[in-house]
């Protein structure tokens, strides 16, 4: 028995000793953490409860050349509530009034909001959701409600800003306007003008300190822990909204009429290279059309007969042909090795001049007039095309430009039929904008200019950068060649393949194109195109229309599908759209408007202290008045003011931004 008691006692001593040693180790560890690693763990604790978050900069506006908005950032406000911050007295005094105010503004019953507020108070919710995506005027109203008007610390209101990008033109030019998006890894996806000039538009981000609260939410800390963001610059594009509207609707009508797969239109100012309109429309499975891809910039394809201009210029420059030279089109079918060049006219055109072959778009004539002089030295022909820059990308700022593709003698894909087929636009690939740039150079007397999408970058009224005309090639051909092909293109419209769009009242010049596409899949798939310029005598604009896979049973030739789109654009710009619209108003209405304007004029000059009511006024007058009283004005749409973001009668704060809705 004594031995057992002794064993038990020894075990107790052993256990006590172990516990003592363990206690010493714990004490040592605590002291080591406090004195040697305390700073490290305090930093870890702070990091876990506080973080610096990014405040996005307000993105600059993208404008059309006439000042119309193409893209703008609208500030939206999210509201949350810290139920712990208000004192009991303040909460009990104002909860009923706050609930009623929220009901009036947001729509649900006062009881609904009062129950939510009281429940949040009871559960000590420090981040109760109240409202999302409020406009500026709604934000001002909610901030002035009982309790919320005491601010973040006494009233518990938490305001978070974010911006949304809006496109006033909606789907028109959507792909050209584009977007810029940054993913979680910091990588940007850039499309269209928004992507190309994002480095101007995006500005510089700010920083704000936030603290972690219950349920993993983060709450802003104070107002002193902020690095303010720098807003982005405004970018002024070359797009003309009126011409864009004309081009978009003309293209859409043709696509719908011929049930085509997709198409594009580009209108360029001849002397400067400024893109005045660019529309890209593709068909959905439901048969509707929208801006799916930027076909004009990115889709390289066989141009077909519009390439005959390039072949003609090369041959004339090399002096291997003359415009009066006669070529026998035989019976409209000429065989080269195992392939046959075929004219669209059954039986051919007989013996015709080189100039007439261009006007009538004879494949057999072009195949013979290029193959015969260049067959022994095809490099001479291809090198001439390359010397004119046709094999080079334009170097556009917009991402995704298609790559020109030309076969070259000696390549594995060069065959005996490659040269004659190149003559009428097969075996080579160009984008519509690359083709148009060449046509524009002809209209511009040989000077090839780079297509340009923007004019200026501005910060408010201060110009940050101006973009001038950029010359790619000062002279692509001699003046005699330029004059010769100009006459051919004018005659193509006057009496050639595009005579169906000829008008004695308005001169146009250009070339039709009809090219088989995906012929290895099935026959009957075509690309219909027309490229040219107007007016023919003094070119102001060049234009290309390309329509893919129209319904063959309805029509597929370039003169039927694409040329009328060109005609409609040209004539609407110069004929149907007057330079000045004269509107005759009744005397009574004129007097009313005059009196209204005089009243506002007096109000502006009396140094008003509150926001004036501009609803119902014309946009131009409203903008002038508001800017005169010191406000920064943004607007969407056109016409008269239907809504204003800051309500009439509110206190006027200089340099405050007000947004107008115009209808």
From TrEMBL:
Location in or out of the cell: Membrane
Q: Which domain of life is it from?
A: Bacteria
Q: Which InterPro entries match?
A: Beta-lactam/transpept, Beta-lactam/transpept-like, PASTA_dom, PBP_dimer, PBP_dimer_sf, PCN-bd_Tpept
The answer, when asked if Flavoprotein is one of the entry's keywords, is no
Q: Which keywords has UniProt assigned to this entry?
A: Carboxypeptidase, Hydrolase, Membrane, Protease, Transmembrane, Transmembrane helix
Pfam families in the record: PASTA (PF03793), PBP_dimer (PF03717), Transpeptidase (PF00905)
Residues passing through the membrane, by range: 12-36
What SUPFAM superfamilies would the database entry show? beta-lactamase/transpeptidase-like (SSF56601), Penicillin binding protein dimerisation domain (SSF56519), Penicillin-binding protein 2x (pbp-2x), c-terminal domain (SSF54184)
Q: Which residues form the PASTA domain?
A: 605-663
UniProt xrefs under PANTHER family:
PEPTIDOGLYCAN D,D-TRANSPEPTIDASE (PTHR30627), PEPTIDOGLYCAN D,D-TRANSPEPTIDASE FTSI (PTHR30627:SF1)
Q: What is this protein called?
A: Penicillin-binding protein
- Please give the organism: Dokdonia ponticola
């Amino acid at each position: 028995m004594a031995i057992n008691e002794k064993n038990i006692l020894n075990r107790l001593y052993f256990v006590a000793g172990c516990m003592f040693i363990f206690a010493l180790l714990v004490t040592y560890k605590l002291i080591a953490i406090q004195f040697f690693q305390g700073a490290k763990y305090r930093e870890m604790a702070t990091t876990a409860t506080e973080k610096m978050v990014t405040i996005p900069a307000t993105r600059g506006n993208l404008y059309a050349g006439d000042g119309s908005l193409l893209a703008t950032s609208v500030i939206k406000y999210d509201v949350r509530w810290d139920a712990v911050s208000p004192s009991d007295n303040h909460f009990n005094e104002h909860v009923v009034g706050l609930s009623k105010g929220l009901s009036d503004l947001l729509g649900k019953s006062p009881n609904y909001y009062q129950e939510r507020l009281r429940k949040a108070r009871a559960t000590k919710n420090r981040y109760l959701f109240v409202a999302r995506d409020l406009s500026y005027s709604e934000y001002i109203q909610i901030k002035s409600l009982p309790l919320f008007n005491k601010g973040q610390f006494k009233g518990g209101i938490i305001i978070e800003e974010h911006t949304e990008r809006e496109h006033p033109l909606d789907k028109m030019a959507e792909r050209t306007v584009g977007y810029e998006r940054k993913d979680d890894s910091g990588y940007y996806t850039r499309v269209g003008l928004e992507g190309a000039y994002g480095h101007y538009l995006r500005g510089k981000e700010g920083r704000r300190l936030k603290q972690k609260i219950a349920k993993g939410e983060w709450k802003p800390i104070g107002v002193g822990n902020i690095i303010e963001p720098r807003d982005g610059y405004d970018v002024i594009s070359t797009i003309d909204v009126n011409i864009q509207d004309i081009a978009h609707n003309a293209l859409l009508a043709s696509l719908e009429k011929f049930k085509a797969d997709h198409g594009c239109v580009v209108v360029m100012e001849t002397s400067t290279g400024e893109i005045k309109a660019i529309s890209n429309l593709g068909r959905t499975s439901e048969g509707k059309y929208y801006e799916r891809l930027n076909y004009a910039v990115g889709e390289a394809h066989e141009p077909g007969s519009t390439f005959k201009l390039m072949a003609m210029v090369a041959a004339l420059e090399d002096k291997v042909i003359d415009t009066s030279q006669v070529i026998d089109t035989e019976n409209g079918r000429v065989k080269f090795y195992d392939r046959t060049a075929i004219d669209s006219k059954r039986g051919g055109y007989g013996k015709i001049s080189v100039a007439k072959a261009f006007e009538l778009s004879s494949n057999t004539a072009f195949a013979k007039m290029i193959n015969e002089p260049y067959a022994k030295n095809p490099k001479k022909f291809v090198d001439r095309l390359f010397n004119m820059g046709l094999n080079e990308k334009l170097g556009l700022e917009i991402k995704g430009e298609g790559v020109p593709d030309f076969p070259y003698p000696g390549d594995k894909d060069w065959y005996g039929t490659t040269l004659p087929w190149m003559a009428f636009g097969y075996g080579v690939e160009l984008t519509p904008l690359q083709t148009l740039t060449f046509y524009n150079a002809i209209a511009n007397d040989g000077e090839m200019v780079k297509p340009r999408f923007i004019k200026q970058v501005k910060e408010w009224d201060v110009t940050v950068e101006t973009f001038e005309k950029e010359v790619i090639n000062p002279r692509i051909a001699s003046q005699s060649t330029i004059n010769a092909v100009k006459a051919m293109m004018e005659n193509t419209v006057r009496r050639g393949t595009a005579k169906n769009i000829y008008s004695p009242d308005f001169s146009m010049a250009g070339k039709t194109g009809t090219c088989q596409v995906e012929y290895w899949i099935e026959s009957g798939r075509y690309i219909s195109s027309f490229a040219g310029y107007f007016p023919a005598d003094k070119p102001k604009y060049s234009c290309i229309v390309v329509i893919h896979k129209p319904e063959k049973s309805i029509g597929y030739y370039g003169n039927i599908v694409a040329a009328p789109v060109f005609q409609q654009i040209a004539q609407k710009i110069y004929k149907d759209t007057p330079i000045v619209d004269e509107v005759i108003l009744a005397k009574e209405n004129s007097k009313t408007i005059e009196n209204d304007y005089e009243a506002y004029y007096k109000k502006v000059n009396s140094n008003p202290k509150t926001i004036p009511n501009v609803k119902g006024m014309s946009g131009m007058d409203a903008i002038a008045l508001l800017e005169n009283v010191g406000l920064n004005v943004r607007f969407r749409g056109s016409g008269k003011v239907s809504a204003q973001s800051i309500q009439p009668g509110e206190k006027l704060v200089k340099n405050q931004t007000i947004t107008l809705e115009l209808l």
